[in-house]
Amino acid sequence: MRRPLDRGQQMRRRIERRRLVPVAIAALAGAVLLGGCGVGVGLQSLPKFGTLSGPSYDLHAQFTNVLNLPVNAQVRDGSAIVGQVANISTSNFKADLVLKIRKAVLLPVGTTAQVRFDSPLGDEFVLLRPPATTGRPRWLTNGAVLPETDTSTAPSVEDTLAALAAVLNGGGLNQLQTIVTQLNATFNGNQPELRSLISQLGTDFKSLEAHRGDLDNALSSIGNLTKQLNSGSAVITAGIDDIGPAAHVLASENTDLRNFLTQLTRLSSAADKIISRSGSASIGDAKALLPVVNQLVGVEAQIGPDLQNIADFESATSKVAPGNYLQVSVTLHLLLNGSPQTPTLNGGLVSTTAAGSGALPNGGGTSQSSSGAAVAALLESGLP
């Protein structure tokens, strides 16, 4: 027989039942969440026991995917444990991690973070990679943020197996078989040509290798030219902007320019006709002037001495009369039916003396002819 409970024992039983009800409800809710939601919750995602002690500072790191990284996961710098993951939250499809770093650990600006594994089935941790600095670095301080561009996630076993399944399951292998079949069909019967092609390619590569220095110089020159063009981009842009209005003006005057060129073409045709006609006329005129030129050449021996005498007379005049005028009294003696006369200058008088014997029409000897008297009177009447 069960002994009846006293009043105190009954009171304790009621309190214990009331405590067990919330615990049962929480366990039931957890079972529903774990059984009905495929979010990949497992033992690895359960929080780990914290191992960080002592003073620390916080860093925020933004990841696109942290896999099953649990809270309190280790933060390492190489093989040394320098901190742990204090909190994981999500926003805008990104994970924001709060990393607690030991205060004695200094991390330079530019440090990157990556979620990695101890082994293919091991624990996940955050690996920090400081950048290679040559000068005096700047250090990350409390509250600093590692942006998404400085974080990454190492490939997991699941990703590797999924990629391998995609290759094996009707993917790359089938395509590779098609490629090999087509290459065999292409090469069949074309072996000499392919050997020649491969030999020519080898020669070409050797030639390129021999001129590698020239190629490097050409590429360097192109690089310098590109730098010059980049440095003068503002001037080039300004020039293009200035050319725009000019091109617009030329475009607006396109009709006038076309008409001008058309008229110029017509003018050239007319000029060709004029030149051809005037050329034939000039040839005719030259042929017509040829007899006149021949006549002038024939009398050159007769006119030449007279012109020379006139030139000598003009040069002597400035010596005889340095003023503005010269008084000259000329007496001409002409023998009409005789030999040529030789002019003489006697006391300022110009006279002509017969070089030979002859008779005037009136039967006299050497005398002043009527024509000579007329010339002398004409010259004397012109003097002051």
Kindly describe this structure:
The chain is an alpha/beta fold. Among the domains are: 1-41; 49-154; 322-382, no CATH class. Helices cover 51% and strands 17% of the residues. It has 9 helices and 11 strands. The strands form 2 sheets. It has an 8-stranded mixed sheet with strand order 7-1-4-3-2-6-5-8, with no helix packed on it. The protein has a 3-stranded mixed sheet with strand order 9-11-10. It is elongated and about 155 Å long.
Task: Give a brief description.
Helix content is 51%, strand content 17%. By secondary structure, the protein is an alpha/beta fold.
Topology pattern, helix = H, strand = E: HEEEEEEEEHHHHHHHEEEH
The percent range for helix content is 40-55%
Large-scale geometry: elongated
> Which radius of gyration do the C-alpha atoms yield?
62 Å
**Beta fraction:** 15-25%
User: How many β strands by DSSP?
Assistant: 11
Distance between the termini: 194 Å
Query: How much is the average pLDDT?
Result: 74
Largest β-sheet summary:
8 strands, mixed
Q: Strand order, biggest sheet?
A: 7-1-4-3-2-6-5-8
- Overall structural class, as computed from helix and strand content, comes to alpha/beta
Q: Helix count, per DSSP?
A: 9
Low-confidence stretches are 18-41, 344-369
Chart the SSEs and their pairings.
Blueprint: H1 7-36, E1 56-63, E2 74-77, E3 80-91, E4 94-102, E5 112-117, E6 124-129, E7 144-146, E8 151-153, H2 157-168, H3 172-187, H4 191-210, H5 212-231, H6 233-252, H7 254-298, H8 300-320, E9 329-330, E10 341-346, E11 349-354, H9 370-382
Parallel strand pairs: 1-7, 2-6, 5-8, 9-11
Antiparallel strand pairs: 1-4, 2-3, 3-4, 5-6, 10-11
